[in-house]
Amino acid sequence: MSFLDYLSESLQAKATLRIDQFGGYTTRDLQTMVALLFLDGAWADGTFDSEEHTAVLQALEHLFQLTDDETAHLIEVADFLRRERDRVPEFAARICEQFSEAQREVLLEHFLLILEADSIITRSENTELERVLSLLKLSSESVDRVRQAVRSQ
Fold first, then answer.
1. I want to staple 138 with a disulfide (CB 3.0 to 4.6 A). Which of 57, 83, 110, 142 is the partner?
2. Helices marked H in the chain
3. What CATH class does 26-151 carry?
């Protein structure tokens, strides 16, 4: 992100994902946790199609200003961690510790874009959305706000 983009976002008071490392987690750790949540959403319907793959790539590149190689590596690590599905709540708790509610809503916005990437939100994807809302400690009002923001894009 250029300085002008950063200044513009600051002036518009948009929530950005400036990760605070005081909790002892590295930036890469938090990025991996976010990527894991996104992959869980993309796989919620049992498939990971090209539209969802593109949406995950775009979300990670946008949120963290990563290169293509960095994004590919991040997805590879997160995909490996998906095998330890029971750790997702632990990772989500770390995200909640480090990210403000506004930042978690930004994550939710990208999560919804990933779910909607193939133009169909299945029952299993809705179930995953409810799970992520609970894990990220966001309310249904947050979903309503975020859905309105997604629709206006």
1. 142
2. 3-11, 27-43, 50-64, 68-81, 88-98, 101-115, 123-135, 140-151
3. mainly alpha
Q: Which amino acid is at 150?
A: V
CA–chain centroid gap for 119, Å, is 18
Per-residue pLDDT of 51-89, as tens digits, reads: 999 999 999 999 999 888 999 988 988 888 888 777 788
DSSP readout, 28-70? HHHHHHHHHHHHHHHHTTS---HHHHHHHHHHHHHHH---HHH
